[in-house]
Amino acid sequence: MILLTGATGKTGGETAKALAARGVKARALVRDPAKAGALQAAGIEIVVGDVTDAASVRRALAGVERLLVLLPNSQRQVELEKQLVDLARESGVRHVVKMSSMEAVADARTPIPQGHWAVEEYIRASGLAWTMVKPNFFMQNFLASAKSIRENGSFALPMGNGTTAMADARDIGAATAEVLAGRGHEGRSYEITGPELLTFHQVAERFTEVLGRPVRYIPADPAAYLEILKRVLNEWHATAVSGLFREIADGVTPHLTDTLRRLVGREPIALAQFIRDHAAVFR
């Protein structure tokens, strides 16, 4: 049995879909059962509980051999993910898969990748078999700009001329499902990227080409954008996300990998295909 955390989110949901498509038995720990309809329809077993509650986590871990650790970024993420690892070891789980990020390295400079790295190190020292899945910027992040693209023909982000190797959540889910259900992935860290390194001006060009009308990228002032983030995120989260964006703007450029092709036997989804698949939202 595989236990999924974060299964009602974008990457967790895609992982659940990919596991279900393979006929793999899986269970999801969800806080809000109202959000679990698609999971249940796909044949995923649902356990209602909260990762902050050790008792409900223990209940969800009963009979589980593999665990996906995928929690939203927060001030408590490191604490809660370490607790998940401890409870997994206590419950007899053999293999922990951690959703991390490409930015999570020993000398990470901003809170989110620093937290991911701290948990990676904790897992590596736990005595459990482990695998790290490390994606980059998600294409699905552009869905938050859909209204502006649709109504104004533009999107604003504080990325300057920085580049990303952005990946589609469907690819990340497919890779994570292979790691959870396949063999030979213990002790490996897998960096997941899309097929292109793009500036955000080039992203706008892809939108223009697919939608058939001009779309512009407007480099936003970082300080002003931080204030916008604070309207929808708490202070810690807004500042942490702003730090990630600053690294992109500063030219901390990720590299492309062929990990997805090696794991699942196909090329990653390109941004143009992502836009085509979501054209109704952007139009």
Sketch the major β-sheet. 7 strands, parallel
Structural class determined from secondary elements: alpha/beta
Give the SSE string. EHEHEHEHEHEHEEHEEHEHHHHH
Report the total helices.
Answer: 13
CATH topology of the domain at 2-134 and 169-192 and 257-264, by name, is Rossmann fold
CATH architecture of the domain at 2-134 and 169-192 and 257-264: 3-Layer(aba) Sandwich
Please report the total strand number as a whole number: 11
Enumerate the spans where pLDDT stays under 50 for 5 or more consecutive residues.
none
Beginning-to-end CA distance, first to last residue: 42 Å
Average the pLDDT over all residues and give the rounded result: 94
Going across the major beta sheet, what is the strand order? 3-2-1-4-5-6-9
What amount of the residues lies in strands?
A: 15-25%
**How much helicity do the residues have?**
40-55%
Taking all Cα atoms into account, the compactness measure Rg is 19 Å
CATH class of the domain at 2-134 and 169-192 and 257-264: Alpha Beta
**What is the 3D form?**
globular
* CATH H-level homologous superfamily name of the domain at 2-134 and 169-192 and 257-264: NAD(P)-binding Rossmann-like Domain
Keywords:
single chain, 283 residues, alpha/beta, Rossmann fold, 7-stranded parallel β-sheet, two-stranded parallel ribbon, globular
What would you note in describing this structure?
By secondary structure, this protein is α/β, with parallel strands linked by helices. The chain has a domain of 165 residues: NAD(P)-binding Rossmann-like Domain (Rossmann fold, 3-Layer(aba) Sandwich). It is built from 13 helices and 11 strands. The strands form 3 sheets. It has a 7-stranded parallel sheet, with helices on both faces. A two-stranded parallel sheet has the order 7-11. The protein has a two-stranded antiparallel sheet with strand order 8-10. Strand 5, helix 5 and strand 6 form a beta-alpha-beta unit. Helix 3 packs across helix 4, helix 8 packs across helix 12 and helix 9 runs antiparallel to helix 10. It is globular, with a radius of gyration of 19 Å. It starts with a strand and ends with a helix. The mean pLDDT is 94.
